[in-house]
Amino acid sequence: MGGTMDGTKQQRRGNTRQRIQDVALELFAEQGYEKTSLREIAEQLDVTKAALYYHFKSKEEILVSLFDDLTQPILDLIEWGKRQPHTLETKQEIVRRYSEALAGATPLFRFMQENQATVRELRIGDTFKQRMQGLRAIIADPDADLVDQVRYASALFTLHAGMFLLQDLEGDPQEKREAVLKVATDLVTQAHQGS
Predict the structure, then answer these.
(1) pTM metric for this prediction
(2) Which residues contact 118 (CB under 8 A, 6 or more apart)?
(3) Which CATH superfamily is domain 1-57 in?
(4) What pLDDT sits at residue 11?
(5) Mutual orientation of helices 59-82 and 106-114 as an angle, nearest 10°?
(6) Average pLDDT of adjacent 10-residue blocks, the chain of 195 residues
(7) 75: exposed, middle or buried (Cβ count in 10 Å: 0-12, 13-18, 19+)
(8) Nearest to residue 161, comparing CAs of 179, 180, 145?
(9) Which of 20, 18, 91, 8 is nearest to 51 (CA)?
(10) DSSP string, 46-62
(11) Which sequence spans correspond to the domains of the chain?
């Protein structure tokens, strides 16, 4: 697993569009979306504003494109999930894959968490809600009772919370991620068994 991640980093570095996204997100996170200008992003990348403009016409375009790219794995997962039988294995696999998708998008979600007004303004929040509903639809059985519906939803929230809550907890990030994944998987298993 470690190997592939480094590969993606390399790839992302080679691609101007993605370099712009990465640097913009760093600046947005550091000094706030409102205070960051396209010019600063260009300066940080050591490119002209025209070069930046070739890829993105506005800050908003950068943020929305980042969101679309980094949440694409969630859409892919929803599509995959729709084609699978509603078995426990499928649900556990959905949780595992979602955990990975979130890990790849942690800086973006941290930014969204801390800049909810911007997120609302840019409608990213609505899109994310739709994706969450799509995930719930493939993980929860339609006829599950209320307690089990809550368990399914909680499994997804556990993965989200894991990105934020565990920053303050001591321990190896990988181990923390596995602990979060275990709790989310347990919730799905309980819900599936309707216990």
Answers:
(1) 0.82
(2) 33, 34, 63
(3) Homeodomain-like (1.10.10.60)
(4) 52
(5) 120
(6) 48 76 94 93 93 94 93 95 94 96 88 88 88 93 92 94 78 88 96 85
(7) middle
(8) 180
(9) 20
(10) T--HHHHHHH-SSHHHH
(11) 1-57, 66-193
